[in-house]
């Protein structure tokens, strides 16, 4: 499902140092005492989250005047100022503007209807410096969240979702191939991908170097194999090492007056479907080995075991002790949270906590929430994300994950695709233990550094799907450039019919 839409201007519907510092320090449940702490980052974050931007800017001004301020704290403070700018871009509508957007689909909208949906929290808003502002995607999200609003649409066109979010012949292909071969990596697809970034004309002064990072997959046995780089524009490029967990192709070129700066890469890759035939009776708690330890426990700020998280877990899990059954219960509980278009992740201080309380969540938010709950219950969980596509013209950004079940090892999960509705229990449970072969992973972790490193703040501090752009004068945010992704299925090489696992 589409995550980001405020700056999705292309047809296909982010240096990590400062970003990692920011997200290490931030917590959505920062203690109240932080608001009275000495001037510094810990006193600014709660003000930003509370929408008191005037006070936050005053505190930042005061803190930046301190002679003993470290470079890291200075950058973190500067990012808070940038975060406020991004929040204002996300929350771009006043009430009149939000109503006008809803009226595009409900021409005879009544003020009382809007007020009732608003009071029910179905139109995401925030009070910033005393003014109520609505999220730019709140009007379209309303129709995802409210059956009543959907029924009022004058033109009830279906939502654009992946064909694989419903029962599909490929699901049965993956299951049957795994059963026939005894392998977990099956039903491969060979695909040629072209990804591009086009920077707006005059976004950078003429003659200055524009630097771009475009996402690129790693070779992962049994998941991505036989990656072949075809070409790039400009021709000169730098592919990050295979070990880079958020891997990119780096490109640069001088800006020309009045002309967009265009970057693109083309490559081929074989992607395998995944299927694990799990017997719950064989699943035992995973031993916290050194290899698994990093995937257990908290990882502030986005994986934090808050009191509310513990309570949600208790209600979902009950007295269950079997790790697989626990995972099933948590998967179902998170799957019940309705999907809606997301705020930019760089503006959220604790994503899993946001997903728990917002009343809706997108794929990355749902995945981080499920990861938090699994880890809270002693089940290792890790992140993966990239881009999904289909046999049709559909493609989109997407986030998912993996959980560790002994003795099976790492098992895939996609809580956003969730439980299918075929009536067949095995097919319906596909996305807890199986994957389709129509997804390319660019990220095997989140908030990881680039190679070569970015010098300025990232536009996306958590994920990497659209790419990143900067120049000597600073980062170029998503409103200054377009991105695109095109996938074309190719004939399979003769040696790719079965995976390596």
From TrEMBL:
Residue ranges of every copy of the Transglutaminase-like domain listed in the record: 355-417
GO BP term, pick one: proteolysis
Keywords: Hydrolase, Protease
Top-level taxon of the source organism: Bacteria
UniProt key word Hydrolase: yes
GO molecular function, one term: peptidase activity
Protein name (record): Transglutaminase-like putative cysteine protease
Originating species: Povalibacter uvarum
